[in-house]
């Protein structure tokens, strides 16, 4: 059965600084590069046929390190459908400063509700509306052809994919956290049903 593996990029500079990142292109920290290397170590048993990533450097660099660690040279497809949720007016702001500016409750609502976007930005629902069609059209096509697929993307674009695969509702997906650099390995059947799910944790 084909495998679909999801990995959130390693820690970025703005993750470290507690800032809303969204579509701003920021690099990995040294810890983020180490997380990517460890994710690669955890995936050496899978011979991926194809990889997908976003148009953002932190995801592409994580993927590059993983493939280098695994020792694979495979096709890589980049698409902004897999980009992080666009945080609009929040992008670049420290999360604590955003709470001071708009209030703790409203910022929490923007971050954790399913369908309420921040000013000029996307909700998780908006993110899913671009991620899921790409998943169905491209990624699941490879799965149906029996290929093992690696997707390295972002917290919210990956949450959209998890929502689709695990058939979760809006109230369930908003509680799902996806840690940086932690592979989620799904084994799927020909009808996209999950045969098994394994979260491979990094060792400290």
Automatic annotation (TrEMBL):
Residues binding substrate, per UniProt: 8-15, 21-22, 58, 84-87, 95, 111-112, 155-156
Pathway: Carbohydrate degradation; glycolysis; pyruvate from D-glyceraldehyde 3-phosphate: step 3/5
Keyword Flavoprotein appears in the UniProt entry: no
Active site annotation, chain numbering: 9 (tele-phosphohistidine intermediate), 84 (proton donor/acceptor)
Catalytic EC class: isomerase
UniProt keyword terms in alphabetical order: Gluconeogenesis, Glycolysis, Isomerase
EC number: 5.4.2.11
GO molecular function annotation: phosphoglycerate mutase activity
CDD domains with a match to the protein in the record: HP_PGM_like
Membrane-spanning parts: none
Reactions mediated catalytically: (2R)-2-phosphoglycerate = (2R)-3-phosphoglycerate
Biological process, per Gene Ontology: gluconeogenesis; glycolytic process
Pfam families: His_Phos_1
InterPro entries: His_Pase_superF_clade-1, His_PPase_superfam, PG/BPGM_mutase_AS, Phosphogly_mut1
Function: Catalyzes the interconversion of 2-phosphoglycerate and 3-phosphoglycerate.
Family assignment from sequence similarity: Belongs to the phosphoglycerate mutase family. BPG-dependent PGAM subfamily.
NCBIfam families per record: pgm_1
Record PANTHER family: PHOSPHOGLYCERATE MUTASE
HAMAP family: PGAM_GpmA
Name of the protein in question: 2,3-bisphosphoglycerate-dependent phosphoglycerate mutase
Originating species: Persephonella hydrogeniphila
Lineage, uppermost ranks: Bacteria, Pseudomonadati, Aquificota, Aquificia, Aquificales
Underlying gene: gpmA
């Amino acid at each position: 059965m084909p495998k679909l593996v999801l990995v959130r990029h390693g820690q970025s500079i703005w993750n470290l600084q507690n800032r809303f990142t969204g579509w701003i292109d920021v690099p990995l920290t040294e810890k983020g590069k180490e997380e990517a290397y460890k994710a690669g170590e955890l995936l050496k048993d899978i011979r991926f046929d194809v990889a997908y990533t976003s148009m953002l450097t932190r995801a592409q660099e994580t993927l590059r390190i993983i493939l280098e660690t695994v020792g694979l040279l495979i096709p890589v497809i980049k698409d902004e459908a897999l980009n992080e949720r666009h945080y609009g007016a929040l992008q670049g702001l420290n999360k604590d400063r955003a709470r001071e500016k708009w209030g703790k409750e409203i910022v929490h609502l923007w971050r954790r509700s399913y369908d309420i976007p921040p000013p000029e930005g996307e909700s998780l629902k908006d993110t899913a509306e671009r991620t899921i069609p790409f998943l169905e059209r491209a990624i699941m096509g490879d799965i149906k052809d029996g290929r093992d697929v690696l997707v390295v993307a972002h917290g919210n674009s990956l949450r959209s994919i998890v929502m689709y695969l695990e058939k979760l509702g809006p109230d369930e997906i908003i509680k799902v956290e996806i840690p940086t650099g932690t592979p989620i390995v799904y084994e799927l059947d020909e009808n996209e049903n999950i045969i098994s799910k394994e979260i491979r944790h990094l060792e400290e």
